[in-house]
Amino acid sequence: MDVLTPRSLSEALALREAHPEALPIQGGTDVMVGLNFDRAHPAALLNLNEVVELREWAPSGDGYRIGAGVTYAEMMSGPLAAEFPALAEASRTVGSPQIRNRGTIGGNLATASPAGDSIPPLVVAGAEVECTSVRGARRIPVADFVTGVKRNALAADELITAIHLRPSGVAETFLKVGPRNAMVIAVCSLAVSAGDELRAAFGSASPRPVLVTAPRGEAATFPAQVAAAASPIDDVRGTATYRRHAIEVLTRRALERCLA
Amino acid sequence: MRINVRVNGVPSEADCWEGESLLFALREKLGFPGSKNACEQGECGSCSVLLDGVLVCACLVLAAQADGHDVTTIEGLGTEEELHPVQAAFVETGAVQCGFCTPGLVVAAADLLERVSDPSDDEIREALSGNLCRCTGYVKIFEAVRLAASRGAGA
Ligand SMILES: Cc1cc2nc3c(=O)[nH]c(=O)nc-3n(C[C@H](O)[C@H](O)[C@H](O)COP(=O)(O)OP(=O)(O)OC[C@H]3O[C@@H](n4cnc5c(N)ncnc54)[C@H](O)[C@@H]3O)c2cc1C
Ligand code: FES
Ligand code: FES
After folding, report:
1. B89 φ, ψ to 5°?
2. What torsion, rounded to 10 degrees, do the Cα atoms A36, A43, A20, A24 define?
3. Which residue has the CA at smallest separation from atom 3 of ligand 2?
């Protein structure tokens, strides 16, 4: 095994093209668990930690461009938290301080777990994933980027370089169900924004992200609409019936919060 | 591969397997066994160290990612003659039983007090939520953090 450590984005993209077998590693909070438990055997690792371009964020057009290597800790505070409250709330529920200091939005998207906590708020925000290779960059809506359970639309020579999203400018929130406050994989989760249009997306309740929308006038029936759009399964963390019920309850609570 | 890490301010070198964690390198190659290995999956916090001043689980950092960086371990927080105020408070309040969680908790508590000199109980609970202790029930650990804060440990 080799560790490739590029010092710039252009070097990272060149290495990615030349060594598609090298597994990217940013915060390592998913990758290292696989290595420590001898479950993952990558031929090589592409260490992205020294690529400063991936750690940057800045206003861009009428929104923001947030580098793939921006951490949950960074999303939870300062201007990003003020502009994207639901994403900040979701970030606060991730793991523990140690995990939030290392784990990144780009890593969460690439892992593409149905339980990935950044995904529902990104879907509600209509965020796009910037995927870049030596061939150039393209943008894919988050809901299309996640193609299945732990599957994504990234080509073998591409890296996630950034997320593009606009502040909703309306009330929004994120709720998560789990056995304790810290360190839980969501039993289910929900992001909602409530402008003229109501928008919701859930986590741990479908193989791919789903965006549910309705006019604000349908607030009374929206919780049932959101629950009906879920396709949860039974697993060790909860039953499908419980999840569907919880999503309806969470949607009602989220609307109470947002429309108050 | 060879890595160069500054551990507790001292430049150190080690030969590592490419897939090895910073925790393994610290304990087995660099001679810093203070950080403990309990879960190797980020759940327990017993391996907590500061990487460039940021609290992380050493088991989730690739050793190669620490190349050229600064690491502070429990060994860097105090000496046997002069304990760090957080260490002294843990001893005085009886916050240590088997001691396995202690290095990680002390590093996490010291990191909190660096940032927040007079934390509320909620802030303490949040800051230590990534560190598990199977013995104490946490009450004495909280007392220790409050005691260290009252003595200006973060100042
Ligand atoms: C104890 C613990 C608790 C956790 N709690 C939560 C939780 O509450 N909610 C949650 O959603 N997740 C949680 N996670 C999972 C994990 O922390 C997140 O998925 C995190 O966002 C991963 O980011 P990372 O930078 O650490 O990714 P890494 O581990 O570095 O990488 C993850 C994946 O993304 C790929 N990748 C990384 N960066 C790029 C890039 N720029 N381009 C292309 N591919 C890339 C890697 O190849 C790998 O496949 C937890 C993990 C642990 C260990
Ligand atoms: S050993 Fe690293 S968190 Fe448990
Ligand atoms: S003192 Fe034994 S685990 Fe904390």
Report:
1. -65, -40
2. 20
3. B42
- Mean of the pLDDT values across residues B36-44? 97
Ligand 3: atom nearest CA of B99 is 1
Q: Does A39 touch chain B (CB under 8 A)?
A: no
Please report the pLDDT score of residue A71 as a whole number: 98
Q: What is the mean pLDDT of residues B63-84?
A: 96
Distance CA(A220)–CA(A28), nearest Å, equals 43
Q: Would you call B42 and A182 a contact, using CB atoms and an 8 Å cutoff?
A: no
Distance from CA of B127 to the nearest CA of A (A): 6
Q: pLDDT value at position A260?
A: 85
In the listed set A147, A165, A183, which residue is the last one of a domain according to the structure?
A165
Mean pLDDT of chain B: 96
Domain boundaries of chain B, sorted by first residue = 2-76, 85-150
Q: Do residues B127 and B119 make contact, with C-beta atoms less than 8 angstroms apart?
A: yes
Strand pairing category for A57-60 and A44-47? unpaired
A21 to chain B, any CB pair closer than 8 A? The answer is no
Residues of chain B in contact with residue A102, where contact means CB-CB under 8 angstroms, are: 56-57, 60-61
A142 and A85 in a common domain: yes
CB proximity A25 to B under 8 Å = yes
CATH assignment, B85-150: 1.10.150.120
Cα(B141) to ligand 3 centroid in Å equals 10
Distance, in Å, from the CA atom of A253 to the CA atom of A259, rounded to the nearest integer, reads: 10
What's the distance, CA A90 to chain centroid?
A: 9
Give pLDDT tens digits for B92-145. 999 999 999 999 999 999 999 999 999 999 999 999 999 999 999 999 999 999
Query: Which residue ranges of chain A lie beneath pLDDT 70?
Result: none
pLDDT at B155 exceeding the cut of 70: no
Domains: count for chain A: 2
Q: Which domain holds residue A60?
A: 51-165
Give the residue from A135, A165, A195 where a domain finishes.
A165
Q: For position A229, which CATH number holds?
A: 3.30.390.50
